[in-house]
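hey so i finally got around to running the thing on that chain from the lab meeting. sorry it took forever, my laptop kept dying and i had to restart like 3 times. anyway pasting the input first so we r on the same page abt which one it is
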Amino acid sequence: MNLASYIDHTLLKAEAVSDDIKRICREAIEYKFAAVCVNPCFVRLASEMLKGSNVGVATVVGFPLGASTTTVKMAETIDAIENGATEIDMVMAIGFLKEGNFKAVSDDIKGVVKAAKGKIVKVIIETCYLTPEQIVRASIIAADANAHYVKTSTGFGSRGATVEDIRLIKKEIGERIKIKASGGIKTREQALSMIEAGASRIGTSSGVSIVS
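ok and heres what got predicted. didnt touch it at all, straight out
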């Protein structure tokens, strides 16, 4: 298994500076990670650093709460792509999902998918705040809205991904949508267990230590 090809090499800390972004881009090229995932203000820098490589540039939208309006999320998406993003990790409207306003959740995702114009869209559902039934519902909505991935966590919630989360999503939606496990994944063993459970991507800030 080429474990590096599963990894989104991630740095979303508020205190990250340009030199940190340059470092993770160099690491991503060296280890051949799938993508880097950075905050929107660093997308242009990451895109310049990764030009000519096979490493994607992912960024976050509506992050980390998912509580921005759809109009704002769409504007963030358009701006990110203009700056060189190839993948969009959007946070679902968590509150709407929890109150059963599934149409609003769906319309929100559809708006970002439309704004992304074919670029990869991953929907962060923040599993730590959801019941198993809500996790399944959120995953189905994301698939129906033509997103490419359902993603477990922002890394800023009360917990990150679990193998149980991945298995649940995989069992209920099969191949309809891919799964990105993120949040709290720090070891090779954890990453492999997520992949075995059904994850196609691993979001982690520990990519180098995982593959070394």
